[in-house]
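Write out the bound-state structure for guanosine-5'-diphosphate.
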Amino acid sequence: FVMLLGSILHQSTFFVSAAKINQLPPASIPEVCFVGRSNAGKSSALNILCNQKRLAFSSKTPGRTRLINMFGVPNPEEPEEILGFLVDLPGYGFASVARDEKEEWADVLGAYLRERKSLTGIVLLIDIRRGVTTLDRRLVDWIAPTGIPVLALLTKADKFPYGQRIRAVAEVTKELAKLGTVEAIPFSSTQRIGLEETTEHIVNWLQPQDSHLTT
Ligand code: GDP
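---
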């Protein structure tokens, strides 16, 4: 069953890039966004979840064009039809980016999270060694009023032994309590930790009617 779920995301393909919210396609099908500090491991996570080497690009280069990248997940029964979108929101928190540019990006990010009607789930990436930072809290303040469910991936979990991972999960869950529906899990792209659980969440969010039927 999980293999089947995974294979849906594996068929994802690049759909469109947008610099502004008003350049996005109409909000007519479910979408799940990926958001987190730059270097948190977002592109690695997207690539491993989609089983592709270069679907999402690392946000390592400061000052590169800030684009929202959308990937289409095809309907397995109707491959011409897109079931939903995975949305890669560029990382925040570059030390070297000018203040104005940071604020401009924060506006886009905030507007997307608050206003995007088709957003059914948020994957928040947090480096397990850093925990929840001030910038993450700012993001959480935008997300909380929307009530959209959040899955927090504690990335690079391979850097921590098991006991420390569990402690990190407890700490982050507490810090994100304001979000209401939030779940935090250890995740590692290199060690493939948390892949199945993450895939399951995403696929459920892309097919809200199905998850409704099965609950
Ligand atoms: P992004 O800026 O959030 O897209 O982050 P990247 O996916 O480019 O990853 C940032 C850095 O963290 C890179 O050097 C990756 O090799 C490393 N990294 C990403 N995921 C993992 C992981 O699961 N484990 C470890 N140990 N390193 C990782």
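---
The longest strand covers residues 78-88.
Residues 210-215 have pLDDT under 50 and may be disordered.
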